[in-house]
Structure formats: structure tokens, C-alpha cells
Amino acid sequence: MLHVVSLIHDQFEDLELWYPVLRLREAGASVLLAGEKAGVEYHGKYGVPAHADISFDEIDPDSIDALLVPGGWAPDKLRRFPKVLDAVRAMFRQEKVVGQICHAGWVLVSAGVLNGYRVTSTPGIRDDMTNAGAIWLDEPVVVDRNLVSSRRPPDLPDYLKALVKLLQEKTVR
Predict the structure, then answer these.
(1) Alpha carbon of residue 142 to chain centroid
(2) Percentage of the chain exceeding pLDDT 70
(3) Which segments constitute the DJ-1/PfpI domain (predicted)?
(4) Among 3, 9, 51, 103, which one carries the catalytic annotation?
(5) Domains contained in the chain, CATH given
(6) What is the signed CA dihedral for 79, 82, 87, 89, rounded to 10 degrees?
(7) What is the pLDDT of residues 79-97, one digit of tens each?
(8) Cα separations (Å) of 34 from 40, 57, 107, 157, 164?
(9) Is residue 51 flagged as an active site residue?
(10) Are residues 166 and 98 in contact, defined by beta-carbon separation less than 8 angstroms?
């Protein structure tokens, strides 16, 4: 069984959190939501609630197959937590799958992991991504090594196809 953690905080983009979580659960993955505090209810931009199963402190990159970062305004909050940035860096060091969509790229920028990676994001943070050393492309989904990135909600079907495919490739034993 695949083990995935998705980061959450208030003002996440509702579809960018729930579409991947539900799609991965349908594919048989165990998906936990990690927030600042376990048990806390966070709300998306459109009011959809999500409960943190675990806290950022409880994320163990050694025991998960993928880390997801949804967009919205939550990434601007998420990138302020050292434990979040540590988890992202660990996932990249271990070459484990990281998925990011829309404004989620801000978290990877703050973690300092994008240098030389081909990525996409919402065009609004293109400069942030390129200033962090990424090669930014205006495409629905970009896969580079362990990173799957996407632009915005209409790209979710392409994003999840690529994410599931990469997870399957990386976890074949």
C-alpha cells in the first residue's frame, strides 16, 4: 500500500487538496492530512473543511512514498514552518515523489529544492520559481525526476494521471 501525506492549512484550494486525496485513496493509497496541529479543522478557500490526521512534527519522510502540497493561499503559510521545509528537503534527498500544484511551488521555493528542475505552477509565481533556479514551463503538468507539478484546477486530471504513474514506477519493488 502506498503511504502519502498531504499538507494542509487554512485557505487551501479545495479542489487541489481533495481531488488528489480522493483519487489516491480510490487507487488504494493511504493518505493522511498533516497540519500545524493534529485534530484541527482547516478550511479551504470555499469553506470545505479538512481535519489534520497528524501534525507537521509527525511527518516521517522515511515512511511515506509521496508528499503533496495543494495550492491556494495555504502554501504561503505552510512555507513558514521549518518542519514542513525539512520534510520537503528530505523527500527530495530520498528522491521520493513530491506533488505540487498552483501556488504550492512557494513551499518548494522556500525549501530551496528547485534548482535545475523543470516545473510548472500558476503563472502568478513564475518569477518566484525561476528565481529559485527552476526552469518554468506553461504546461498542464510537468514531471521531472521525483517532482510532479501542475498549474491549476482544470489541470487536475493530467496532474493525477502523472502523479499516479510516477508513484507506481517508483514503488515497484
Answers:
(1) 13
(2) 99
(3) 4-165
(4) 103
(5) 3-171 (3.40.50.880)
(6) 80
(7) 999 999 999 999 999 999 9
(8) 10, 9, 14, 23, 20
(9) no
(10) no
